[in-house]
Amino acid sequence: MLNIQLKELEQHELVTKIIYPVVPPKVEYGLTDFGMTLIPVISALGNWGDENEERLRKVILKGVYPK
User: Fold this and answer.
1) For the segment 37-52, what is each residue's pLDDT rounded down to a tens digit?
2) Per-residue pLDDT at 12 exceeds 70
3) Can you tell me the distance from the alpha carbon of 15 to that of 7, in angstroms, rounded to the nearest whole number?
4) CA–CA distance from 38 to each of 10, 12, 41 (Å)?
5) What is the pLDDT of residue 67?
6) I need a surface site. Which of 27, 46, 49, 65 has the fewest CB within 10 A?
7) Cβ neighbours of residue 33 under 8 Å, at least 6 residues apart?
8) pLDDT at 35
9) For residues 13 and 56, what is the distance between their CA atoms, to the nearest angstrom?
């Protein structure tokens, strides 16, 4: 599943993949310049989650443990 997601991110030019010819195999992923433009968006989403943590926890637990 992770490989599928990484391949999609690579196809969308958000990450780069470097394969090293070593044993055991080594692969590194990095953000492209285009991928770096997502950092403020992800940061804003993380801040929103932090600000609403208590409410989100209640909503999530309500779904997991319905009355």
Assistant:
1) 999 999 999 999 999 9
2) yes
3) 9
4) 14, 13, 5
5) 64
6) 65
7) none
8) 98
9) 32
